[in-house]
Structures are given as structure tokens and as C-alpha cells.
Design goal:
Blueprint (H helix, E strand, L loop, with lengths): L2 E7 L2 E4 L9 E6 L5 E10 L3 E6 L1 E2 L12 E2 L1 E2 L4 H5 L5 H4 L8 E5 L2
């Protein structure tokens, strides 16, 4: 049985467009927060053991200029709802408003 989980992070990086020869690297942090959460799913399988994955989605406005996908960042108001199987993921998994992330080139 899959279970939802909140993956706590302080930052993440992503390479720019994978089709480019030169791969610039970008660091993203959440403005006004020391850490934030990504939507994840956890399962315990007899064949594999414990495993988890972070969900991805189409990029929001802060990430779209740099990459064609992004991790599913949860709005703080949705952290508890993501853990509740009675709440539809469609209501929770949505891009953050423009300007939510600080972006810095790091490579």
C-alpha cells in the first residue's frame, strides 16, 4: 500500500534544459522559509523493502524558464492535507505562485 509523505528540504538544484550542450545548474530555495516540503510516496514492499519517491510535475512559473519538469513542492497550507488519503491529490499538486522561489545560478 502506498502512503503519502512530506519530504523536507532546504533547497534543490536542477540543470537547465537537458537539450543544451552546456548544462547550467540552478539552486532554488523557498522565499521566507528555511525549509519546505515536496510531495512524496512511500511503500514497504516484500520484494524491495522500504522505498520512496518524490513526485514531479509540469514546471511552475519560477522553474519553467530553466527546466521542463519540477519536483512537486507543497504549499505550506497543504502539508497536512497531502498526508490525508481522503483529500484529492488534484487539489494539492499545483504550481506555487510566481515569485515563491529564490533562484541562483550555481554552475
Amino acid at each position: 500500500m502506498d502512503r503519502s509523505l512530506n519530504v523536507h528540504i532546504t533547497e534543490f538544484t536542477t540543470p537547465e534544459d537537458p537539450k543544451k550542450k552546456r548544462k547550467d545548474k540552478w539552486l532554488f530555495t523557498m522565499k521566507g522559509q528555511r525549509w519546505f516540503c515536496i510531495a512524496g510516496i512511500w511503500r514497504n514492499s516484500p520484494a524491495v523493502g522500504e522505498a520512496f519517491t518524490m513526485l514531479t510535475m509540469k514546471p511552475g512559473p519560477d522553474i519553467a524558464p530553466f527546466h521542463d519538469r519540477q519536483i512537486a513542492i507543497l504549499d505550506r497550507a497543504d502539508w497536512t492535507d497531502w498526508l490525508d488519503p481522503a483529500v484529492s491529490a488534484k487539489l494539492i499538486l499545483k504550481p506555487l505562485p510566481a515569485g515563491s522561489l529564490h533562484v541562483e545560478q550555481v554552475g
